[in-house]
């Protein structure tokens, strides 16, 4: 049955509440632990057993961090890195142009700087060079360096690695590996085919962090001391969230500890970025994914490819401020380009049908720097994996985003192996591809078939999942602080979403460009403020402004709004449904 009887909400969605089993587990957990019932509902939905509730709420990195040596080639990679440091050899870092690549590079640059050593940073141009190492760049780096460390890339770059014969190459990556690995000195990657997959959820920055942990261990065994790695977890947290790595296991501890480090405002690049983004509170996982991450990415998308990595690695506040302002401006420009491509892609996808196993669109001249973001928007809208491709002459370059339980990277890699793509790879949640224009239709048809076999397109794309119901008076700061302990929330661990049932709309007004500000109450004195961004882009805004005294069920996520020194809970409204008379 639909939750609260909402079969079709104002935005056309069916509301789904917790199952009877989850309800039973939540009730038992609340009785056993004394924790708030709403918190227990979230924990039960996340699959946390009642006996593990307290330890889950306080993840300890020392308990969850794996031994780096469980990854193949790790000792070799760290040993070569330490040897280069000890003998003062020239080190180059070849990084991908996204947040994960930028943070991975910044981790190494920061670590080396603290050891008194410089490093050469090389980030390829997205349009001119494309993703990953290329033979020309690697050949030139090898001619002038003793060691090249490829981060967040390199696992499929056989020709490029072969071109770097004059230097040793170490690869620290997390993208899906092929049947054979490039001829590098070491390939550390939890997604190599000969790994057991237990650490497949790590992003590249986490792999780099583990390499630095192992490097520190080898240095201690030799009587040397390395930098304080705990202070570098802010970068690992940013990468983990921005690269949509699942927030479970060690990832959860990395992000939680990283957010604490970030709140201390010690890294000039992140301080400058937070300031230009006008963050008035310590960053949360939401801010990493939707505020800071997109700005770091902007340089690689439409501007200077290495700008994000240089900002994150900077130790000069004035230099960091200038780079952060440039990235902020590029991000604004990126949003304008994205809006244009998104409108065209959505119209095209709607013509094909939004209920297919794969939602896709392709267009001539679409900027390759925004196709991934547009794919994310289509995925969010439809609940299906999405691919968006920019065509340039006889070739198209695209990005895809997936949904939980559907491994997009493996399917794209298989397509490349079958010859339907010129190039393709990625990981479970995201992938990149290059396709010949005359193979576009058959490639997307085959990809749709592969994804359908994994369950894509099944179930209700329009379902809105809720953790339960709250009265306005129960939505307190204290409750929200308790709920935050179950975080950080993100990929693989969606944040709590509640329904406010049978609410009276006491105030509703359009603010800004298409946003809705409202206040609701239960008719007995307890009220709750709410905000719905983009509400007037659809039916939500006008229906609530013109409520005519009708009562509504409201659905959304709770957040703390800090203004003028006051902290109060507000509802980030996502949906509403008129109550039946």
UniProtKB/TrEMBL annotation:
Residues of the DDH domain: 90-240
Family, as annotated: Belongs to the RecJ family.
Keyword annotations: Exonuclease, Hydrolase, Nuclease
Single Gene Ontology MF annotation: exonuclease activity
Protein name stated in the entry: Single-stranded-DNA-specific exonuclease RecJ
InterPro entries linked to this entry: DDH_dom (IPR001667), DHH_sf (IPR038763), DHHA1_dom (IPR003156), RecJ (IPR004610), RecJ_OB (IPR041122), SSDNA_exonuclease_RecJ (IPR051673)
Record Pfam families: DHH, DHHA1, RecJ_OB
Organism expressing this protein natively: Thalassococcus lentus
Ranges for domain RecJ OB: 467-575
Gene it is expressed from: recJ
Domain DHHA1: 360-452
Top-level taxon: Bacteria
